[in-house]
Amino acid sequence: xxxxxxxxxxxxxxxxxxxxxxxxxxxxxxxxxxxxxxxxxxxxxxxxxxxxxxxxxxxxxxxxxxxxxxxxxxxxxxxxxxxxxxxxxxxxxxxxxxxxxxxxxxxxxxxxxxxxx
Length: 117
Hints:
Layout: H1 6-20, H2 24-31, H3 35-42, H4 49-59, H5 76-91, H6 98-115
Helix pairs in contact: 1-6, 2-3
């Protein structure tokens, strides 16, 4: 399958799953994968081709983003997604634990860093 940017895939899977409030088992069931496959991807291990394809569709991302070291600039829709996430976080600070706030901010920070040229 060629070289896969596993760190970026891992980050996107974890962020998307957390945003949807799903467990690894729920994601696995939705995609027809094993929970251990989702767990391994979130630990930075490469999935097989079929699993990779399912994950890309679930993420709504072109597989080329993760292949061959392809990097792309943060596109408008991703900027809007991050802006939306930050707005939600700011409006929810009174009900979020400090750990949850920190975790979400670190996730967003990683995505922004990874997408910069």
